[in-house]
Specification:
It is a single chain. With 541 residues, the chain is an alpha/beta fold. The chain is 32% helix and 18% strand. The chain is built from 14 helices and 20 strands. The strands form five sheets. Strands 1-4-3-2-5-6-7-12 form an eight-stranded mixed sheet, sandwiched between helices. A six-stranded antiparallel sheet has the order 15-20-19-18-17-16. The protein is globular. The two termini are 33 Å apart. The N terminus is likely disordered.
């Protein structure tokens, strides 16, 4: 849990061109030609929770474009450092379960966006979600917050709901009973580059020309483009205070999931996909199957599948009384898929489900930091001179992982990744969002980018399943002779006897893994062509 603190950003100069918000066709258009959103913020203060997540990270620039002042609640403010809008917002660094931090975050807020959920955190997610919602509702009431907007899940009436949808409905009920005006927006599958729903659709369709067909593939769903979700979120801030209720939101098309896959295949230029019916394939089994062929871990896949084992179709369109459809209409499935694919092709995916911060994930400082004291540490520290410039070496370091690999014993990395997947970890499936650039908070295979100092340091924290905590530092240094030096340091903080045994078991392979990285990264750096348009560090001055 982070120590509650806040850092206010000085007002920006409205005439400064750096403050302009670029209109993105995949996103909403809070511009002068949209009478619903243009200037709707009127200087009101909006709090965005879940700001490192998929929707939260996209909502902030839309609120700014609509004229809101924005405050973000984040456990780790450093993870917002590289966002283009960071210097235009205020950040309160605190955990959403901390009453003091919530009070500070909600102070003076006109509208609060509740985008918190424990998707993918295991079997206790209902308990975590319930506790967070109760705490947030109480804090919003005590702070006199004008409105709460919650993005929930679309669910059918009169059916026993899956644990995921039941949890979403419980959060909705808790917030609606909080005593604060609440607008709940219920959505099914969200189509947009980087969303977990879209990634599952993308990889299932691309990797399986022939697949088994569980019953849920024939269920009707009503997807909605991320652009329209964001438009509803921004517009919901202006719903009259006497209105406190839920609204179904969805796009213009109702399709089965199998039809959605066929339409993705057509948009991506793939042949028609074929499905073989099977009598039994439970959502639980489906989640493990999806876990094998997509980057989406089974905990998240299970929640997504459990949402579409029901028919999730909009039952009412009352939201249009307060947020009318845009002049050009809502985006259909085909156009939403086309826009998402274009963003992926252009390496311009603004946010991703991979970047979402997970409650309960390690957040302590690297054990080598002076303020850390906590028992045994194991360190593998290697350094060697490199026949390359610091910029050449850094280009290889910042490009590590994903399709570029880890520069040593690829079979060993793949086997370790499969072992991690087998025990519920991410393995190597997450890859990286951009093959050239990294930002603090990015997922990188089974690592998370914890710190970047351009041309100097890339620090990665392991998110694989381990009996302890692990970090990997990749550094660019210079020796007394002025030569470029590549240093890599692996640090492991074991937990109990299992951690000690784990380190001893993998220690014999360090020469192959870390020694190979030393040699191969050095070789790759010396071969870098400085005329390559992608070789330069992304944030170097």
């Amino acid at each position: 849990m982070a120590t509650p603190s806040s850092a206010a950003t000085p007002p920006t100069d409205p005439s400064d061109p750096r403050d302009e918000v670029t209109v993105d066709p995949e996103l909403t258009t809070a511009s002068d030609d949209d009478p619903v959103l243009a200037g709707s913020g009127e200087g009101r203060l909006a709090l965005v929770t879940g700001v490192t997540g998929y929707i939260g990270g996209r909502l902030v620039p839309e609120l700014l474009a609509a004229g809101f002042r924005v405050r973000a609640l984040a456990r780790n403010a450093d993870r917002l450092r590289d966002r283009p809008w960071r210097d235009r917002i205020e950040v309160v660094e605190a955990d959403a379960s901390d009453p003091e931090g919530l009070a500070r975050a909600l102070d003076g807020v006109d509208v609060a966006y509740y985008l918190l959920h424990s998707l993918g955190t295991g079997r206790t997610f209902e308990i975590q979600d319930r506790g967070l919602a109760l705490s947030f509702g109480k804090a919003a009431r005590e702070a006199g917050t004008g409105r709460v907007v919650y993005l929930g899940g679309l669910y059918p009436s009169g059916e026993e709901l899956s644990p995921h949808l039941a949890g979403r409905k419980e959060v909705e009920d808790i917030l609606l009973a909080s005593g604060v005006p609440v607008a709940v927006l219920r959505a099914a599958v969200i189509l947009g580059s980087g969303s977990a729903s879209f990634e599952m659709l993308r990889y299932l369709t691309e990797r399986l020309p022939v697949m088994i067909r569980p019953k849920w593939l024939a269920n009707r769903i009503q997807p909605i483009a991320v652009r329209d979700v964001l438009r509803y979120l921004v517009g919901a801030a202006s719903i009259p205070p006497e209105v406190s209720r839920g609204f179904d939101i969805g796009g213009p098309d109702v399709v089965t999931y199998l039809e959605l896959m066929q339409r993705y295949a057509k948009a991506a230029g793939l042949p028609k996909r074929y499905a073989i019916p099977v009598p039994v394939l439970t959502p639980h089994l489906s989640s493990h199957w999806i876990n094998l062929v997509t980057p989406v871990p089974h905990t998240i896949a299970g929640a997504l599948v459990s949402s579409i084992v029901h028919e999730v179709v909009v039952k009412e369109r009352d939201i249009t009384r307060y947020v009318p459809d845009p002049p050009e209409g809502l985006l259909g499935v085909d156009r939403a898929i086309q826009l998402a694919l274009q963003k992926i092709q252009d390496l311009d995916v603004q946010t991703s489900w991979r970047s979402a911060s997970t409650r309960g994930a390690p957040s302590d400082p690297l054990p080598s930091d002076p303020d850390w004291s906590g028992g045994a540490l194991y360190v593998d520290d290697r350094a060697s001179a490199v026949d390359a410039t610091p910029r050449q070496l850094w280009s290889v370091i910042e490009g590590i992982g994903g399709v570029n690999g880890w520069y040593s014993w690829s079979l060993g990395w793949r086997v370790r990744g499969l072992m991690d997947i087998g025990v519920g970890g991410p393995g190597l499936r997450r890859g990286r969002a951009n093959p050239y650039d990294l930002s603090v908070g990015d997922a990188l295979d089974w690592w998370r980018v914890e710190r970047i100092e351009d041309l100097r340091l890339l620090r990665l924290r392991a998110e694989m399943r381990l009996p302890g905590e692990a970090w990997l530092d990749l550094c660019v240094e210079e020796d007394d002779a002025g030569r470029t030096v590549f240093r890599q340091k692996a640090v492991f903080h074991p937990k109990g006897l299992s951690g000690f045994l784990y380190w001893q078991a993998i220690k014999p392979f360090h020469g192959i893994i870390f020694g190979g990285m030393q040699r191969n990264i050095a070789s790759a750096a010396s071969a870098v062509q400085e005329t390559d348009e992608h070789w330069k560090p992304s944030r170097a001055s």
